[in-house]
Amino acid sequence: MKRINILLVDDEVLIRQGIKSLLEKEVFIKEIYEAGDAIGFRHQINTHTIDLILLDIKLPNIRGHELVSELSVRENPPKVIIVTGLEGVEIVMNLLKLGVNGVVFKLNGYSEIVNAIQEVMETGYFFQERVAEIIQANAHRWDHIPPVALSFHENELLKIIASGLTTKQIAVELKMTEATTETYRTRLIKKIGVPNSAALLAYAYRNGIL
């Protein structure tokens, strides 16, 4: 395996420093760059030659999905391994649909990150058993997986629903009629593809929206 340049993208400095200090000991590492947000990410991508990105998708003011989408329009984009603490089925499936090269869960530890890097650089992909199970169980609905990314207003509605307010109280909060509020809630439930508000909140927590 050739020596490679890696970009670490995580808004938690301690996590970046910890992974970097371990990676620096690996023989396949050439240079390691860091970013904690979208601005830093774009700067590093435009300034350096990056072979592989370790990307945490939960970043301030932007979803990691958006950054992955930005890479898709570049000529010879770097490979991307998602390193996340989120294990929602929808979030994993949406990332796979975007074409990421691998998904590693933070709870699996550093050794799994190294395994992922080596496999991705050698074969082009790395999907551990948990991810393979998600793909197998959801292959039949590949084209119908609900999007994780929500609009600003949809996110605001979710936050208010999560606070436990009644429809009447939500309507006051959003300065809408109760009928309009209920319409928005129903549309959001339909968009996500869940049966009720409780399932909607479960989806939001599972996928790092809340």
In terms of topology, how is this protein built?
Layout: E1 4-9, H1 13-23, E2 29-35, H2 38-47, E3 52-55, E4 58-59, E5 62-63, H3 64-71, E6 79-84, H4 89-98, E7 102-105, H5 110-123, E8 126-127, H6 129-138, H7 152-162, H8 167-174, H9 178-192, H10 197-206
Parallel strand pairs: 1-2, 1-3, 3-6, 6-7, 7-8
Antiparallel strand pairs: 4-5
Helix pairs in contact: 8-9
CATH topology of the largest domain: Rossmann fold
> End-to-end distance, in Å?
40 Å
For the record, the count of structural domains works out to: 2
Q: Could you state the CATH homologous superfamily of the largest domain?
A: Response regulator
Task: Tell me about this structure.
The structure is a single chain. The chain has 210 residues and is of the alpha/beta class. It has 2 domains: 139 residues, Response regulator (Rossmann fold), CATH 3.40.50; 55 residues, Arc Repressor Mutant, subunit A (Orthogonal Bundle). It contains 10 helices and 8 strands. The strands form 2 sheets. A 6-stranded parallel β-sheet has the order 2-1-3-6-7-8, with helices on both faces. It has a two-stranded antiparallel ribbon with strand order 4-5. Strand 6, helix 4 and strand 7 form a beta-alpha-beta unit. The model has no long low-confidence stretch (mean pLDDT 87).
